[in-house]
Each structure stands twice: as C-alpha cells, then as structure tokens.
Input
Amino acid sequence: MYEIIKILNYLIRNGIFVYSITIFISYIIMSIISGIEISRYMRKNSFVDYAAIIPSPYAPSITIIAPAYNEGKTIIENIRSLLSIHYIDFEVVIINDGSKDDSLEKIIAHYQLEKVNFLVNYILPSKPVRGIYKSTNKAYSKLLVIDKENGGKADSLNAGINICNKKYFAAIDVDCILEEDAILKMIKPFLEFSNDRVIATGGVIRIANSCKIKDGKIVEINLPTNLIARFQVLEYTRAFLMGRMAWGRLNGLLIISGAFGVFDREIVIKSGGYDCNTVGEDMELVVRMRRYMIENELKYKIVYIPDPLCWTEVPEKLSVLSRQRNRWTRGNMETLFKHMTLFFNPKYGTLGMLSHPFWFFFEWMAPIIEFFGIFYVLFVCIMGDPNWPLFLLLLGFAYLFAICYSAWAVVFEEFTFARYRHKRDVTRLILISLIEPLFFHPLNVWFAIRGNFYYLLGNTSWGKMERKGFSGKTKNKK
Amino acid sequence: MRFSVYIRLFIIMLVVQTYCTYGQETSDYILHIVKAGENARRISVLYNVPVDSIRRWNYLDRNYRVVEGMELIIKYSGVKIQKGITVLHEPDNEADKTYKVKPESEFPIITTKDKTNVSDTIIFNDKLTSDDRLAILPDPLVNMQKSLLPDSLMTPRQPEFLPSNSEPEEKSSGSTFFGIVHYYYHKSNYLFKFVLFLNLVFLVSSITLSVGMLTRRLRKGFVEHKRKECMDRYRDFITDWLYEDPPPSVPASLIKELKDKVSRDVFTSELLSLHNNLIGESAEKLADLFHLAGFKKYSIQKVNNTFWHLKAKGFKELAQMNIKENHMLFKYLNSGNVTLSIEAQLAWIQLNPDDPLSFYDDPSVDLTKWGQLNLLIALRKCGRIPNFGRWLNSASKSVSLFALRMVEIYKQFDNVDLVAHRLDDNDPEIRCEAICTLGKMAVLSQVSVLRQLFQNEELENRTEIVRSLIMMSESSNVPFFEEVLLNETDINLRILAAKGLHSLGDTGNYRLDSIFLEADPVLKKIITHAKDDRI
Output
C-alpha cells in the first residue's frame, strides 16, 4: 500500500510540477508574441485612413445581427447606436427572440415599422419566424426586424444568417456599444490577405460600467466604481491584449467573443451555422469553421485585432458573475468534448496540436487542478511537515508573477490605446492587480468548479443575467 | 463570451508546494524490526533521526510505544541505500575500516556492530550499490571528520532542490530575519535560488512597470502640452506663409526649434495635413516651405531607416511633397511586406503621374483588395487614369481582377471585348469579375453570351449572371428569368430571377402574375417576396 501511495505521490508531484512550469512558460511566450503582434498592428495601422474605406467600391457589404430578448428598456437606444456606425453598405438585423416584454411594440412604434412579405429560407435550423418588419421611414431603411419564436441566442443568430444576404455578418449582443469605426476596423482584415481566406475577425471587448453614455455612444470612459467590475477590467485587458492576440498571431484562435465578431457568411453556412444545443455557441462555431476549412483543405485565417471596438456591461454582483462564469465553463467543456477528435491530431495542424490541447489542459483542467490542489496542500499541512520557507517562496513567486503579468497587461494598454485617460485610473489598475489574485481569482476557480459540476448534471441553461443597463435602470436578460 | 482566467499559476504553485513538502518525506527508507529492549529513543539515536519523525513516518500517536517485532519505516532523505545490504566483517584496511558489501546482512547491523552512527555512515557512503565498498568510521573519527567536512555533507540530505527542513543549531539560536534568509539561501541549491531570483525579477519588474507607467503619464501630459503650444504657433506661421505675399522668411530660430523631434513632428503633421487638402499654388507654397525648413533630409532619413514603418512614412512624405526618389521606391514596389509595398506603390503613383501603374507590368506583383482600394484612391487623386486594357490579361490574377474592376469603375467601353474574352478564363473568380463588369457597364451585346454561360457556371457565378442581366434590363431576358424561377433549386437564385422579371415592368409582372396563379406555396412566397419593393 505504501508503495502505491509513494508511486501516486511521485506521479502527482512531478506531473503538477511539469504542468506548472508549462503553463508558466506558455504565458510568458504568449505575452511576448502578443507584444510583438500588437506592436506590428499599431505600426501597420498608423498609415490607415479608415474613412477611405467608406466610399470605396471595394468596401464589402455587411449585416449586423443583434438578437434581443426582453431588452425593452434599452432597445430603442441600442438600435440607434447600431444604425449610427460609420459604414455605407450595411444593414442592421434585430431579432426579437420571442421577448415577453414590449420590445417589439416599442421598436415598431419608434422606427415606424411594417410587416413585409419576406420569404425566409431556412438554410440553417432556427425556430419559426413570425414576421419580418421594415421601416416606412427612409431614414431607417437599413433596419430589418425579425420577430420569431424564442429559441435562444444561437437560434436567433441562425435566423439572422438565413435572412441576411450580405457577404459578411457581424454577430453582436444588442446591448453592446460599438465604436463608430468598429465595422471599418473589423472588415479591413478581410481585404488584407490574398492567399488565405479570412473567415472571421474578432475585436477587443471593453467594459462600459461607469462610463458615460449619450445617444448610444460612449462619451466618457471611466474605470468602474464597483470592485467586481474593476477586477474584470484587468482580467479582460489581460485576456484580450495578452492572450487572444497571441492566438491570433499563431492562427490558433478557438473563440471569437459572442459579444462582437465578424464572420464570412458563406463559410458559416457551409459549416452548419450556430449550434443551438450548446451554451458556448460562439466558441463552438469558430472550432467548427476551422474544422471545415482544414477538412476541405482550404487556406484560411482568423484574425484578432487589439482595438477596443465594443463596450459591454459586466456583472457587478457575485451571483450574476457566478452564473456567467458557470456558463462559460460549461460552454468550454461542451466544445472541447464535442471536438475531441482534434486532440493532438496532427491532421488539424495548430488547431489539433496546440489550440485544442492548450484549452483542454490550461482552460478546462486548470481550475480543477487548482481546486484539488488546495485540498492537497491542506492534507499535507495536516499529515506532513510542510517546508514553510519554501512554501512562502513559491507563494510569493505565484503572487508576484500574477502582479507582474497584470502590470504588463496595463503597460500594453497604456502604450497602445490608453483609453483610461485619468492618471488615477492607472494607479487604481495597479492597486487592483495587487489584490486580484487574492480575492477575484479564487472566486473564478470556484465558479469554474461549479460549472464543471453543472455540466456533469447535464444543466444546459444560460442562467438569468441581470444587467443594470446603460441608462442606469435594472433589467433582466435570460 | 468566454476567455481564460490567466493567473492560474497562483494556486497551481500551491500545489507545487506539495511536491516540495512531500519531497522531504518520500526519500528512501529502510524497515526496522523492533528488537527486544529497544524503545523509540534508542531507535532514534541509532538512526540519528528525531523521535517525532519516526512517529510521523509510521502514522503513530503522539504517545506511541514500540513493541518487539513492530515494523518501523525509517527514512534517509536522498541517500540511495538498497535494502538488504550486508557487509563482510573483515576489514580490508585497518586504517579506513572499509568493508566489502555482500548480501544477507541488514544494513543497520553494520553500524550497530561497529558502534558507529547510521547517519554518519550514510554521509560517507552516498549512493551505495551492492558492489561498492562501505566506509565505517568509529565515533572519534566521525567527530573529527565532521569538523573538517563542509556543512552540506553534515546535514541529512534533502530532496534535490530544497534547503534543510530541520533547523540547525545556529539558526535556532536566536538568528535575525536576515540571518535566517542568509542561512536558507546558503543551504538551498540552485533551483531554490533560481525561484528566489525570479521572485526578485517579478517584484522589481512590477515596481518598475508601475513607476514607469505613472512617469509616462506625467511625461505624456507634458509632451501634449508642448505639442498644443507648438501647434498653435506653427498653425499661425503656416497660415501666414500661405496667405501673405511675399511669404515671410523662415526664421533661423524656427529652423533651430524644428531640430527637436516633438516640434518637428508637430510642424510636419500640420504641414502635410494642410497640404493634403490643397491643390495648385497653395500646395506648391507648402511644398516650398517643406524644402526651406529642411524636412527633405528627415524624410530621406526615414526612407533609409531600418524600421519598415518609418520607411513607409518617409515614402508618404516624399510623395506628398513631390520629391522624386524613384530609385528608393522601386525596390519596395513588390516588397514582401505588404504594407510597405502598398505605400511604395501609392508614392509611385503620385510621383509618376504619366505612367502611374507601370509596376503592374511586372507579373510578380500581387495585390490584396486592401491594396486595390488604396490604389483606387491614389489614382483618383492623381487624376490621370490609364487604359486598364493593358493589364486585363496580366499573368497576375490580382492585377487582372483589379483591371476588370477599374474598367467598370471608369467605364472604359473600349475594353469591353477584352473583358468578354475573360469570360472564358479557367479561373471562376476572374469569370465572376468579368460578368460583374459587363453587368454594371450594361453591355447589351453580351446578354446572350451571359445567358449561354449560365448553365455551365457554379452557383456564385450563376447568381452574378442573373444580377448582371437584371442590371441590363433587357426584355429578351423574360424567358430566361422564367426558366430560372421555375427550374432552379436555390431559393435565393429563384428570388433573384423573380426580381429580374419584376424589374422588367409590365411585361415581367404579367408573367409573374400568370405564374403565381398556378404556383405552389413556395413559388407564391418567392413571387410575393420579389414583388415587395420595400425589401
């Protein structure tokens, strides 16, 4: 028995040691790649006059698809914001996903809509469409509203794809606020490559809590006053500027945020559209698109751009944050397990040999290892005689690495877009990075563990998302 | 929306700690069978280990008792001693008391019989194997050797990278904090020191980055203030230069001031942005100012810079100020760096208006759509539009596509035959662009050709043919549209065909109404959709 314990212990300790070293090195490598990529992007785009795209016959057509469920309190403002983006050849498709509130009535009244005889071609599976509306006012000629039975976000996006006929579409959360030049910046990568087909582009999502918003536009950017939201600013900055940029460079991106992403419609349709049976439909679609391209031996790219183009509200309450992270974990697991055939499969190149295994080991497994690691440490403390000096040294190592990593993320932000103009905001971000590893991160681990548990129980719900709304009022989103 | 939680290491390293803590406990061990008359204290002395450690290794109570026949695990950290090692009780040499190792006699017996301490024996016999010699030193000699040996040999060995966990006398006797740190530093091996070093690196980096960012903010505020102040003055000066006749001379003080990079950047950007919006005499006046202020040398410096983005900036400035440095541009026209090559091409177009696109003659030129978009803008500025028929049959696919698009945009009807010729191309993308060009130019002579092409094309090109025919608005297309509407399977193509009929006015609508009367529900919906002008 003792021999077995000894072997197990040997395997665990060495396995964890190798795991920790790998994750540590991979983060450092990713930050270096991100730094290089962001620098290259900034240099390359310092010449660009985005306004030149607007009147050009080369500017591709695009549909903005925004599903909405019970968004009655802010829907009018949200649509106005979407209609005011800087682009010529675009249309805005709002999908009322069987809202129980007065969203549709409000839109019809405000935008002077009337039902049109639109034939829906159900290329992708979606719940039945009850009606399609267009405005009688030419000022809103770019607006199309679809009223359909409730089927969830993926289902609504599929309905939008069925109806739109532009070459590209942008999938966005209706309550997100887009920068005016967001589409211009997101569409550019589709024009930049001649050998590889760009099938999707993703942009950085920023946090709009505490920002001043007027007429659907951000007029003053502030750091959130709420501590939980503020933690997420740091988290988002790290994840987008230091993580996804590197994956974009390696052409290994597995996810484009559901809050805002632009896709090649033809490839999305050929890949089968959004999967309505997952809560991680955004990640699942990207993985499936990539698989489609590889399996058909088509050269492709998925591009990530570091510009802050989309502003969204993040949870300020722990209960809401818990539900969100729980859902993310389940979505992650669903996609990873659904596409297990990719796992270390050389046929799929970077996707199979790098992206999928990385996500598997360091996204899905990491919180589990962390969680059980805590108990293991406690067990050792009780049963053994921990080497406290070394314990403190390694604890210090982990903590200081976390702070240093966050500091680099703030540096990336500061040297690129520096959206937080107040001097005190930088100081606050630095201060928040000191306490984030102690409070926010353990919470995230716990939420991820709950997500795993829910997944095992077969829970497939989105969870109720409570948002304050940019108007300051509280609203509920399912 | 989902993304990784990036600071996983924090807790993971806690787990690593278990490696370290357990590392101490999982070294080699021997099994001691308690003999009559032995107690815990005696066994601990025999093996030179704490009584409490024996308790922990064997999961015993605090007040444990050992009884005869009891098996106790005794650990020797890091020392490779094989179980069952025995010795020949014949010394080879009386001076060093070396024994040959042989099977069957248990290792503790060696030390017991020789009245020496097990741990001391271990110190002098690291990594024993069955054919090695085992050195046994009598107590007085051990004590003497202890004083001569380095510390690292005198303490029980630890796992590979750990300092000792048992506190030595000098540390426990009231050391200071720095003393303890110093002790551990010297006791630890390279990996421990490396982790310590990394901690320092992270700490110093974090502090440096934080201070750096705050300092940068302050500096940024200062620079912005300076820029603003400079901008106001320079703007006034440039305006005076433009509108005063004769223009004022460039004061030496200004020339001197412009040697400063920030000031020069502000002046240059103001000058270039104003120049961008002017033409004729005013633009020439600004170009003169650019020369007089000595900016040409800075632009050339940029072009010669190793950084590609500065090179590209230099190209831009040279082109805008009409400074012909073709030899500098030429080698970058087809550079592997797409951005640089686009900037070089744009500059070339501006500087060589007589033959702006001569570089297209090189078939290795590859154009992205982004490049084409920018070239179109540059051509519009340049004002002299070349005959694109020259490149319609280019060996470079991207150049051909660009030429087809330009023929359509600039309505170069002279090239219609050449465009029609591309309908036979093997590349579907070229054919598609040719179809689109003919449609947008409404070349009626090609209507029948397009209709004939329809059957053999793939869906994307078929759709483009129907679209082009709609733009041509030719009544002879009625049977064609009708056939597509009734016989095709793709809904979008059928809707397009119905729209084609609808676009032909009364003739088409009459046909649509007739079809509607006998149509199935889907066809009815297609027709209703096509006839709804609001969509």
